[in-house]
Amino acid sequence: MTIFMTFRIALKALNRNKMRTALTMLGMIIGVGAVITMVALGNGAQVSIEQAVQSAGTNVIMVNSGNFSSGGVRQGQGMSNTMTPDDAVAIREVPGVQFLVETINNRGGQIVAGNQNWNTHVEGTNVDLPLIKNWPLESGQFFTPTDVLSASKVCVIGTTVKNMLFPDGGDVVEQIIRIGKHPFKIIGVLISKGQSSVGQDQDDVIYAPFTTVQKKMRGVTYIESMTVSAASADNIRQTSDAIAAVLRVRHKIQPGDSDDFMVRTLEDIAAMRTETTKTMTYLLASIAGVSLLVGGIGIMNIMLVSVTERTREIGLRLAIGARGGDVLMQFLVEAVVISLLGGSIGIGLGYGLSRGLTQFLQWPTYVSPQAVLVAFGFAAGIGIFFGFYPARKASALDPIEALRYE
Amino acid sequence: MSLISVRDLKKTYIVGDIEVRALRHVSLDVEAGEFLAVTGPSGSGKSTFMHILGCLDRPTSGQYFLDGKDVSRLSKNDLARIRNHQIGFVFQGFNLLSRTTALENVELPLLYNSAASKGSDRKRRAMESLKLVGLEQRTHHLPNQLSGGQQQRVAIARSLINNPSILLADEPTGNLDTKTSIEVMDVFQTLNKERGITVLLITHERDIAEYGTRIVAFRDGVIKTDEKIANRRIASVELAALPPVSVD
């Protein structure tokens, strides 16, 4: 018997029990659909991380203070106050460094303009920030070295802050806002960047000269971190190593002692996040996989019922010349048809669900061809695995006994 | 050389701790073209004997020559091929596939015959087979739309499709009324006479057995009597004598 005919017989048999076939298939549809959706979510997160890194530039190096240890007790990241503007001056001289901004944040403090108010943190930074972040202004301009040198109370704001403080719109440059108890003059508005890859509103920012945050707001002399851009992405590794070497000398760290700072490229950070995303994807996919397994057990259950129900049919087929192998194939193909058909519909469902999540919840999703192939293969595998036992049972029937079965 | 020749056939079942000797030392020759009726009470071993003759079962010992070839030690798959090519089966309960047309039911054995894989060819042969039993008007009916006699004729058509040399009928009239029984026996007699098909008929009814040319009676696993039938019943004559009422 040709495989084509076996398929036709299987389709006919499944067609005779439409409701049962549909319900059995539903298990596979939901299982495969869930796996596809979960993997699409994971892949989507990964793709958006990759895109974020690409748009931010692959040549960005983050220098954070951290790992401060006092007598063997390690503090968390950012807990040491050993990084200073002088470090930044030294790092600017490292070959390969193109731009550098010092960063110190001021948290808390209500921001007030007229009868509106808002709360966000103020990031103290330096003049090259728009260049490093590749972030142009929609109006006004960024602050100048003179503003930094003189610690002027000027600021550049993102569009979210602008909309919160000035809901009526209009030109906000030259307006005065109050941050905590300090009046700041707005000198520029950044264009909208939208959400970041982790869903953070990138436009909810206020930038001020870091010197202003240090001296006027926080009353400190250290900085929290630096963002460096390397001249080219090719030798970013050497550049970040050189920065670390300079800092070690400046901070008098003995060989063998742990650093009180951390130098990471944006790629390192992305790799870390990708790792986390992967773990999440695996977790979600395996939970979804459980429903696939349940779908498979459903197939096995129905096939067993079907074999018992059709014992006489099997007996007849054997009597008129079907070999055990023919009967085995017939039932195996029935199981595989259920699982493959269910799997295909499940792939469609998963694709639709993923599109829906992106459309209505703005979650990034990506249905990769590999995921579809794997899901399809998995569905076939489940059909064969769970269909084999009932099919074996059918093929091992004794024709005489089977014909007598009531 | 006989078409069927069995020598010293034995079949023993083990049921729990008890050994059941269903057949003991059975020897028999059946010539091509015979119409053999096998009778006997239940438990006499006639069913076991027919299952072995039908290649559905293998003997514990002894030999079974079918068309000169010893088939008593063949593998399951080889037996399946013999069943498909050389033997046609007709059962008491018809055993038609439900929700499957008469034509498709008749086609069924061809699906397991590698020599007949073309769809149009299968259809044509199934039509011919249905014509032989006079059901060419019912090809697309489902079993539940056919009378018992018609269903049995579909089953006979199915058994004929591979041009078997032997037709094995296991209580073919057991579910049918008298008149329909005569009609079915007429089909068997016609096939036996006109196409030379050897018919092996199992029945426990003596009057049905008398449509054959020879009666073999089983008792306790052995052949008790083996006789030619003197006054053979002829179904076509009996049908002609019946009042003309259409069954179809």
Separation of termini of chain B?
Answer: 42 Å
How do the strands of the widest beta sheet of chain B line up side by side? 6-7-8-3-9-10
> Helical element count of chain A?
13
Question: Which ranges of chain A are low-confidence, i.e. pLDDT below 50, for 5 or more consecutive residues?
Answer: none
Would you identify the CATH architecture of chain B?
Answer: 3-Layer(aba) Sandwich
CATH superfamily heading of chain B: P-loop containing nucleotide triphosphate hydrolases
- Helix and strand pattern of chain B: EEEHEEHEHHHEHEHEEH
What is the end-to-end distance of chain A? 28 Å
Global morphology of chain B: globular
Main sheet properties of chain B:
6 strands, mixed
Oligomer: heterodimer
Short note summarizing the structure:
Chain A is an alpha+beta fold. Chain A has 13 helices and 14 strands. Chain A folds into two domains: 184 residues, no CATH class; 168 residues, no CATH class.
Structural notes for this entry:
The complex is a heterodimer of chains A (406) and B (248). By secondary structure, chain A is an alpha+beta fold. Chain A folds into two domains: 3-53 and 272-404, no CATH class; 83-250, no CATH class. Chain A has 13 helices and 14 strands. Chain A has helices spanning 3-16, 18-56, 85-92, 129-132, 145-149, 159-165, 210-218, 236-250, 266-309, 311-319, 324-361, 369-395, 399-404, and strands at residues 60-65, 69-70, 73-74, 97-106, 111-113, 116-118, 122-125, 137-140, 154-157, 176-179, 182-190, 206-209, 225-230, 261-265. In chain A, strands 1, 4, 5, 6, 7, 8, 9, 10, 11, 12, 13 and 14 form a twelve-stranded mixed β-sheet that branches. The longest helix of chain A has 44 residues, at 266-309. Chain B has a single domain (30-62, 73-241), classed as P-loop containing nucleotide triphosphate hydrolases (Rossmann fold). Chain B has a six-stranded mixed β-sheet with strand order 6-7-8-3-9-10, with helices on both faces. A four-stranded antiparallel β-sheet of chain B has the order 2-1-4-5, covered by helices on one side. The radius of gyration of chain B is 18 Å and the shape is globular. The mean pLDDT of chain B is 91. The interface between A and B is medium-sized, with 23 and 28 residues.
